[in-house]
User: What shape does this take?
Amino acid sequence: MNLPIEKHKINYKNEWLTPIEIINALGEFDLDPCSPIVRKWDTAKKHINQIEDGLKTEWEGRVWCFPPFAKESVKWLEKCAFHGNCIALTFVRSDTKLFHQVVFPTAYALFFLEKRIKFYSLNGEQGDSSSSPSVLIAFDKNNADILKNCKLNGYYVDLKF
Ligand SMILES: C[S@@+](CC[C@H](N)C(=O)[O-])C[C@H]1O[C@@H](n2cnc3c(N)ncnc32)[C@H](O)[C@@H]1O
Assistant: This one.
């Protein structure tokens, strides 16, 4: 939709940015479909923001997806599963519909990060440790292998053994 920026209803909640060291440890991504309108740093070769709407856009290549924390996270993770070539980041909430209906049935592998992430805000300041633990989710074999061999501190769990 090509409305001028001031005509869009912009939501500045959910602007929690992944420390770039985590993304760098996972190799180069082609696309980040849920990216801030103004980025502190690149997370992929191409970015889609809320004005362009990454849920409605076709995804191509290797995707990094840390979706907005909202009811819509089910839709984002379903799109990751459908796309396949993707690593997603989300909070560990293993008692939710998100995990039981999307993550566990579709993911290839999970990587539970050992430490709580200290996310960055849009002004570049790093916050305190997150209130929840985080997990990286691979939706295909190649990205599962990348999680298995990455140098991040955490525990790899294969779901397709
Ligand atoms: C949790 S942040 C992750 C930011 C970045 N991908 C990262 O990993 O650091 C979620 C981002 O999704 C953006 N967002 C929200 N709704 C969106 C939509 N419909 N399409 C694309 N991006 C969206 C927000 O503006 C926010 O920057």
The pocket of S-adenosylmethionine is lined by residues 14-18, 32-36, 43, 48-50, 53-55, 66, 68 (CB under 6 Å). The chain has one domain: 5-158. The helical segments are 20-24, 73-83, 97-106, 141-149. Residues 1 and 35 are 17 Å apart (CA to CA).
